[in-house]
Amino acid sequence: MPVRRLLAAAAAALLGGIGLATPAAAHVSAQSAEVGAYTLTAARFWATAAALLALAGVVIGGLALARSARRVGNGRTKGAIVALVAGLIAAVGGTLNLAVADGGPGTGNGVVGGAAALVLGLVATVLGRLALTRSRRTG
Fold first, then answer.
1. CA separation, residue 11 to residues 15, 53, 104 (Å)
2. Separation of CA 49 from chain center
3. Domain count of the chain?
4. pLDDT, tens digit, 9 for 90 and up, residues 17-53
């Protein structure tokens, strides 16, 4: 238990104003031992939100990458930057959720959503960076 509190305090110190430390702080509070398969716990909610943000980042990054060579002007990098930032935020949120989880899938800790947010967040970050690099090269 002290390790989780230490991780929550470190995450709160690093990510203070962003609000990503909220799942870690909420997770330290006690949860019931019996969690149903469809029960929406706080950890599952935050993991799902991070996974949806990462999925949006992947879609925006893919569109930005497809359009990066064709677009002209200052607006061509907006999608790439949005995908890059959304991917980073989702990857950090997924990693934080996985770090404080004390059980596997099905325990109500949001492990599956956290893993999905981590993987999709990294994909969105890579797509955003590729689109940003390609758009600067063609400009």
1. 6, 19, 21
2. 8
3. 1
4. 445 445 544 554 444 457 776 677 777 888 889 999 9
DSSP code for 115 = H
Decide if 87 is inside a domain. Answer: yes
Question: Has residue 85 been placed in a domain?
Answer: yes
Q: In the chain, at which residue ranges do the beta strands (DSSP E only) sit?
A: none
pTM of the predicted protein model: 0.68
Give the structural domain span for 120: 40-138
**Residue 80 CA from chain centroid, whole number:** 16
Question: Taking a C-beta distance cutoff of 8 angstroms, is the pair 107, 42 a contact?
Answer: no
Number of Cβ atoms within 10 Å of the Cβ of 52: 15
Amino acid identity, residue 85?
Answer: V
